[in-house]
Design a protein that fits this description.
- The protein is of the alpha/beta class.
- The chain has 14 helices and 25 strands.
- The strands form seven sheets. Strands 1-11-10-8-5-3-4 form a seven-stranded mixed sheet, sandwiched between helices. It has a four-stranded antiparallel sheet with strand order 16-19-25-20. A four-stranded mixed sheet has the order 23-22-21-24.
- The longest helix is centred in the middle third of the chain and has 15 residues.
- It is elongated, with a radius of gyration of 27 Å.
- The protein starts with 8 loop residues before the first helix and ends with a strand.
- The N terminus is likely disordered.
């Protein structure tokens, strides 16, 4: 359903690099009236409904309100409602210093014109229907009307989502693929006049990702983070949106924009308190479309692993915590390989930020998604390593607690590395122990609380010594041993046992404070050595079955010697997305 445009070279340059033609005379951040129309259409009647436009619209409403805009928010508009809302917006925008228009939903382009679709758009359309009935919802008409009213106009169009209505239009009208297909056209961008800013969620002819359930689209997540940045001009902010979305979607989606201004437009002046504003936390970007190896292909927001020819493919919906397992290097199933969960890229506070105010003001970025072990490595998985000639043949004791699906214990850092080496060879994938930064980021996820369970945690949610809180006679307040790996509360990103059960080895030398999370474990170790760190000790996270509650906090950090084997030490693995 992709539509590919043949564009003049100048337009291609404009779209892919952003054309910022501004003769900067002054900065526009006065106290004039600012108005925003925000529309999110999700509940389409003649096409599969979209998951996130309503949520994206609410996110943009809050962002505009922080910036001091009067916001008109509407969701799931039919054609008549859509037209009335646009007309009302044009009337209210008279003499506004800045007028902003945001739309999320389906759109279609025909003969170079982009139409924003209401939820009651007929499945079988005609050119007459679009030209006469839908003319008021043609984007270039809305842009032209607003240009005559407001001094500065901002358009944010997150509407290039895969639209099955486009195929019906193509079939019924007989239009060729350059006239009626998915994706939007470049005409609106090329024809904007002075004082207009227009930003598309993706380049012409391409589709934008809707995002996983209960999250924003990649475009909105990056856009919100950008426009709430104090003291930056809109052109610089949109450049960062393009960069961040491209990174988080691994190049699958590239926003384009055009800025034609005589003045700088600074939506949030530095040092000025805008309406309802607070220091914004970093926005967590949704997961990317990943392509992990030659046997895996990206399809929409799914990652599909090829099986044998007779049983098709297994698809994982990204971002919902659904686990997968790698296959052996010969392509056969590997039932004893650890289950993996895909962790999205995004921003987070560096290690040590919980106790260091200077670090708390910093933000680090995980630039690529990665896989994390759903739970700790088990005795069964360790036995598979030994049976296949790995793990140096070492058989750890289980303290007579049981083996099977309990986490493997009495393993040192070097033992854990031996397992990683075997697993990488066994699956032909690149496994490792997570750095402390990656472990913390994956375990915490989007939760801004002391535990993944919120402001408190109990023995009913994790395996630790809870006798200080519960009655000492309460069964299971202190189990005095490990439990099976999938018997704890699960995190927002689908991980088990990030609090208690066993402390988990990481690849990080001690201490790792404020370190760049993009470093590999080897680079991280070298960096810590240069800073006087001790690589004979490695960071361990999560707390164990014998830990008191405070030791299971996200902020709690410990270290252990690399040769130590203990019944409260285990590990989980991570895998890179190739």
């Amino acid at each position: 359903m992709l539509r590919y445009l043949v564009l003049p070279l100048a337009v291609v340059h404009l779209l892919f690099f952003g054309w910022y033609s501004a003769t900067i005379a002054q900065e526009l951040h006065d106290d004039g009236r600012k108005l925003a129309l925000v529309i999110g259409n999700s509940a389409y009647r003649n096409a599969p409904p979209l998951t996130n436009p309503s949520r994206d619209a609410e996110t943009m409403q809050r962002a505009f309100q922080v910036l001091g805009f009067e916001v008109l928010l509407y969701k799931d508009l039919n054609r008549i409602e859509f037209e009335r809302v646009v007309l009302d917006f044009l009337l209210k925008a008279q003499n506004a210093t800045i007028a902003a228009f945001y739309f999320a939903g389906h759109a279609v382009q025909v003969h170079g014109h982009n139409y924003l679709l209401p939820i009651d758009t007929p499945k079988f359309q005609s050119i007459t229907y679009l030209n006469r009935i839908m003319d008021r919802l043609r984007l270039d008409n809305i842009i032209r009307d607003l240009e005559q009213i407001s001094k500065t106009r901002l358009f944010f169009i997150d509407a290039c989502r895969d639209n099955p209505i486009a195929d019906e239009l193509y079939t019924i009208t007989g239009l060729r693929s350059t006239s009626a297909r998915g994706g939007l056209a470049a005409g609106d961008v090329a024809q904007v006049s002075r004082g207009t800013v227009i930003s598309y969620a993706t380049r012409p002819g391409a589709f934008a990702l809707d995002g996983p359930p209960n999250a924003n689209s990649p475009y909105v997540a990056a856009l919100k983070e950008a426009i709430l940045t104090p003291g930056e001009d809109i052109g610089i902010l949109l450049r960062s949106v393009t960069r961040n979305v491209r990174e988080v979607t691994l190049g699958e989606q590239i926003p384009v924009y055009n800025v034609i201004l005589e003045d700088k437009v600074i939506l949030r002046p530095a040092g000025v308190q805008t309406a309802g504003s607070t220091q914004s936390a970093a926005v967590q970007l949704p997961p990317a479309r990943a392509n992990t190896d030659r046997s895996v292909e990206a399809t929409g927001l799914r990652i599909c692993s090829a099986r044998s020819p007779d049983d098709g493919k297994a698809c994982l919906i990204l971002g919902d915590g659904q686990p997968i397992r790698d296959r052996r290097s010969d392509g056969t199933p590997c039932p004893q390989c650890p289950e993996l969960v895909l962790i999205p890229a995004g921003n987070f506070s560096p290690i040590g930020a919980d106790t260091d105010p200077a670090l708390a003001r910093m933000k680090r970025r995980i630039t690529k998604p990665f896989f994390m072990g759903r739970a700790e490595v088990t005795f069964d998985q360790w036995a598979a390593c030994v049976d296949n000639g790995g793990c140096n043949g070492y058989q750890p004791e289980d303290n007579r607690w049981g083996r099977g699906q309990r986490p493997v214990i009495n393993v040192s850092f070097e033992d854990a590395r031996a397992f990683v080496t075997w697993l990488s060879r066994h699956t032909n994938q690149k496994y490792d122990l997570p750095t402390e930064a990656l472990w913390s980021y994956a375990a915490r996820g989007p939760v801004q609380a002391p535990w993944s369970t919120g402001q408190d945690i109990s023995y009913k949610q994790a395996n630790f010594d809870d006798r200080m809180t519960a009655s000492r006679d309460t069964p299971d307040a202190f189990r005095s041993k490990t439990i099976l790996i999938l018997q704890s509360a699960v995190t927002a990103w689908g991980l088990f046992n990030v609090h208690g059960n066993v402390r988990e080895w990481t690849a990080s030398c001690w201490p790792e404070v404020g370190i760049d999370p993009s470093l590999t474990p080897v680079e991280s170790a070298e960096y810590v050595k240069l800073k006087g760190g001790d690589c004979s000790r490695r960071a361990v996270r999560g707390g164990g079955w014998d830990s008191e509650k405070h030791a299971t906090l996200f902020s709690t950090r410990r270290a252990s010697r690399v040769d130590r084997r203990s019944d409260d030490l285990g590990f989980r693995i991570m895998r890179y997305v190739n």
